[in-house]
């Protein structure tokens, strides 16, 4: 039986290649020994002991999981992901295989899946593009090309049109550049007063400034108008033709104003793909903050809500990543 040690792991794998955040629910496993884990995993895979597989994968950091992949390959001459795929199925398989990907790979796969098939999942596209930093998006774009031999920007353009297309391409290329608060506030205020709405003004400012700068600008605008920016944008870009643009701008504003609340509201649907997407993406970054926002906005903890919605091994996996009751 694996011993849950309380000692700190001094391995460089703690931070290797990770988007490390202080509000992550998943932290590096203390006293991490990949050879021991791989021995346990090989036995569990042979016996189809799903509970043990889930326990180990969900209690290791992403960098530690990558170490397991390397050791497993050296010991067995097989890919760990392929072995996991044979034993697991359904949503649990998706969860565990998602956890085995490095962050930019996972986000690249989410974007590809959102664009596959008959319809486009604009909500997932916007979630990834709005919540990720310029550097993260650059890494995701590179990984997308490597994974699928496709160009992410071209795929986004093929899945959208008009001003919405301009917005998502601008989000992919967004910058954290400087700006003058009074000037940007005045520019957006003037745009709201003009008879003809201009999407270009909103796109240019909201995708080229630092989030801290934009939060102040949006707050100033709301104080000046006496209404939320979401309401202002609803009125500004009404009509069927600008529906996707309105959704995109409102999503961007919500992420800028309170990203963790936006993510908490995203997973309130309890749709498996959305819940898994957010929980895996933010497990080592800010999931603790998302949990707090979920509790504040629903009156129930995410941990308890998951228990009401899911069951068996999938529930075990989700709860292990979620980590604790609030």
List keywords for this structure.
single chain, 326 residues, mainly alpha, Annexin V, domain 1, 19 helices
Q: Which structural class do the helices and strands define?
A: mainly alpha
CATH architecture of the domain at 12-100: Orthogonal Bundle
Overall 3D shape:
elongated
Ends apart, CA distance between termini: 29 Å
Element string (H = helix, E = strand): HHHHHHHHHHHHHHHHHHH
Strand content: under 5%
CATH topology of the domain at 12-100: Annexin V, domain 1
Low-confidence stretches: 1-20
What is the CATH domain class of the domain at 12-100?
Mainly Alpha
Whole-angstrom Rg: 21 Å
Tally of helical segments: 19
What summary fits the major beta sheet? none
The CATH superfamily of the domain at 12-100 is identified as: Annexin
Total strand count, please? 0
User: On the 0-100 scale, what is the average pLDDT?
Assistant: 92
Helix content: 55-70%
Report what the structure shows.
This protein is mainly alpha-helical. It has a domain at 12-100: Orthogonal Bundle (Annexin V, domain 1), CATH 1.10.220.10. Helices cover 68% and strands 0% of the residues. The chain is built from 19 helices and no strands. The chain has helices spanning 34-47, 50-58, 62-76, 80-87, 90-100, 103-115, 122-131, 134-148, 152-158, 162-172, 181-193, 199-206, 211-225, 229-236, 243-266, 272-282, 287-298, 302-309, 312-322. Helix 11 (181-193) packs across helix 13 (211-225).
């Amino acid at each position: 039986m694996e011993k849950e040690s309380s000692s700190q792991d001094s391995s460089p794998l703690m931070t290797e290649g990770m988007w490390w955040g202080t509000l992550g629910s998943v932290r590096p496993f203390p006293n991490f020994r990949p050879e021991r884990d791989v021995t346990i995993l090989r036995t569990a895979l042979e016996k189809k002991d799903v509970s043990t597989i889930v326990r180990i994968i969900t209690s290791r950091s992403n960098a530690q999981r990558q170490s397991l992949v390397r050791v497993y390959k050296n010991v067995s001459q097989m890919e760990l992901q392929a072995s996991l795929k044979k034993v697991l199925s359904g949503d649990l398989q998706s969860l565990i295989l998602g956890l085995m990907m490095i962050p930019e790979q996972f986000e690249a796969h989410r974007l590809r899946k959102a664009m596959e098939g008959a319809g486009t999942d604009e909500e997932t596209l916007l979630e990834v593009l709005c919540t990720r930093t310029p550097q993260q998006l650059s890494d995701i774009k590179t990984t997308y090309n490597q994974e699928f031999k496709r160009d992410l920007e071209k795929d986004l353009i093929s899945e959208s049109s008009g001003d919405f297309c301009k917005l998502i391409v601008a989000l992919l290329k967004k910058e954290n550049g400087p700006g003058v608060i009074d000037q940007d506030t005045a520019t957006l205020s003037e745009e709201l007063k003009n008879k003809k709405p201009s999407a270009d003004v909103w796109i240019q400012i909201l995708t080229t400034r630092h989030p801290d700068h934009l939060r102040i600008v949006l707050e100033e605008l709301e104080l000046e108008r006496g209404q939320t920016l979401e309401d202002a944008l609803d009125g500004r870009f009404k009509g069927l033709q600008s529906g996707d643009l309105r959704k995109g701008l409102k999503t961007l504003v919500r992420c800028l104003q309170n990203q963790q609340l936006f993510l908490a509201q995203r997973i309130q649907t309890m749709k498996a793909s959305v819940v898994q997407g957010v929980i895996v993406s933010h497990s080592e970054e800010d999931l603790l903050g998302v949990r707090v926002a979920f509790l504040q906005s629903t009156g129930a903890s995410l941990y308890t809500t998951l228990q009401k919605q899911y069951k068996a091994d999938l529930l075990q996996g989700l709860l292990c990543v979620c980590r604790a009751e609030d």
